[in-house]
Amino acid sequence: YCRGTPDIAAISGDVVSNGYYTNFDMMPSASGGTSLSSPMSMGMWTRIQAAAPLVSGNPAGLGFADETIYKVGAAQYGYTSGPNNGAFFDITTGSNAQKHAATGWDETSGMGVFDVAKFIANPLADNNSSAEPTDAQTQATVPNQPTGCPLFTTYQGNATDPVTSANDPTLDIVQGQLTTSTDGKSLIASLYGPGLAPGSDTQSPAGGTGGTDYFLFWTTLDNSGNPTTYYARAHVDSQGDAPTYSDGQVSLDTFTDTNTTLQGSFSNGVLTITVPLIDVGNPASGTELLYPQGATWAENNAALVPFSIDTGGSQNDFTVGMTCAAALPEAVPEAPLTPLLALVGLAGLLGFGVVRRRRSLGLRPAAEH
């Protein structure tokens, strides 16, 4: 048999109408393209490799992917003699505008999409009917994140405006903090950036027709280990006027405000919001608030789809009852390679992948079946 490209395919979606539903920086997003289908296929191939036979008691994998892929596929589609257990899901309809999918190998979808369990069981591949890894390792224990102040410190100068690709200082976060109020009844949430201020259309295109949002998120666990993610938010309209402050909880793409009349302020680069504990699950003193993350968003398009402009976290957890200084100016390194990060960040936010020639797997997004 001979090798052609693409070798295999994987569903990717077209981002706009049938992308994968993902969560990006606490924001619902449709993702798709080669940058999604490629790592997903590599994950499937890694699972296949993990179930490969041991050689002299040691894991050896299957060697170069193409040799096994074409050996299994050629037998499945009758190009050579051999077992056919349906190790590939054959893509037979659809096109990439130049080539059309068809039965068997084609220039749109290659051999098709891995059916991982069947590929592992195929005698020409792993020949492992159990599909279990042959050299299973004990899962490493993930250490607890430390508690401390500040919650996080991050780069300055990487709040990329999706219109100009320049840094937007009004949305540039470099530090996040929580502290307990003196009466023990509230959390004081704060974000700091040298130019952090209510964003507007006149200050930057990122102000957008839908305004800007500034968030601090954190997560608590109930007695059964079930998580709930809460937030403190400042919203600024498109003219940079009349900031409003709220708290609530988020689940997937649903933000549910609890209190929309909180006390808050922007002053000298510090955003401060007072959050009553009763609004956010009423955590007792000593409760850990996990995985804190700051984020700024801007809705700068007619569809009012929010773009994540800057994020920070998570480095330290917070324990209710702790007293920390508010987020304050300190030496923060500037972000390296800002122009490159701006380009890559915009591609990620839009859900577009950078298309590359896949020499090892020749991957192309799948057409419809």
List keywords for this structure.
369 residues, alpha+beta, 7-stranded antiparallel beta sheet, 5-stranded antiparallel beta sheet, 4 helices, 28% strand, elongated
Spell out the blueprint of helices and strands:
Blueprint: E1 9-10, E2 20-24, E3 27-31, H1 34-50, E4 54-55, E5 58-59, H2 65-76, E6 88-89, E7 113-114, H3 116-121, E8 152-153, E9 175-180, E10 186-192, E11 212-221, E12 227-236, E13 244-251, E14 254-259, E15 264-267, E16 270-276, E17 288-299, E18 306-313, E19 318-319, H4 338-349, E20 364-365
Parallel strand pairs: 1-20
Antiparallel strand pairs: 2-3, 4-5, 6-7, 8-9, 9-10, 10-16, 11-12, 11-17, 12-13, 13-14, 15-16, 17-18, 17-19
Description:
- The strands form 6 sheets. Strands 11, 12, 13, 14, 17, 18 and 19 form a 7-stranded antiparallel β-sheet that branches. Strands 8-9-10-16-15 form a 5-stranded antiparallel β-sheet, with no helix packed on it. A two-stranded parallel ribbon has the order 1-20.
- The chain has 369 residues and is an alpha+beta fold.
- Strand 2 (20-24) and strand 3 (27-31) form a beta hairpin.
- It has helices at residues 34-50, 65-76, 116-121, 338-349; strands at residues 9-10, 20-24, 27-31, 54-55, 58-59, 88-89, 113-114, 152-153, 175-180, 186-192, 212-221, 227-236, 244-251, 254-259, 264-267, 270-276, 288-299, 306-313, 318-319, 364-365.
- It contains 4 helices and 20 strands.
